[in-house]
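JOB MANIFEST
job_type = single_chain_structure
chain_count = 1
residues = 119
[input]
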Amino acid sequence: MVLERARAVAQAELELARVRRAKVALIERASAFGELDPPRLTVTQMIRLLNAFERGRPIPKPIDASATMPPQEPERAGEAVRRVLPELRRLNRYERRAAARRDRAVLYVCDRKKYMDKL
């Protein structure tokens, strides 16, 4: 039983490490590119774009997300975190659950060890 709990501790630690790496990767990607995903056009925007093209009007260039990022590092990192905050919140939930599983397993192993020492 203790071995199973030790495995649970190790699995939870690996999951914590994965979640933390994912959070860092999200922030680094947003800092480098200004956003996580390329912008997508809605149907209405596509129709307007095609109409402008057919009428010979100049086609507006898409806004480069990285151009709207602050150039200096502390502000740039802060803006990157702000842009990925919803994803970071979701990952934080997974991180809390993994930490709770790890903590429960560690407590069980510690309590079991105390019990065995008394015998």
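[summary]
The longest helix spans residues 85-118.
The chain has a mean pLDDT of 81.
exit_status = 0
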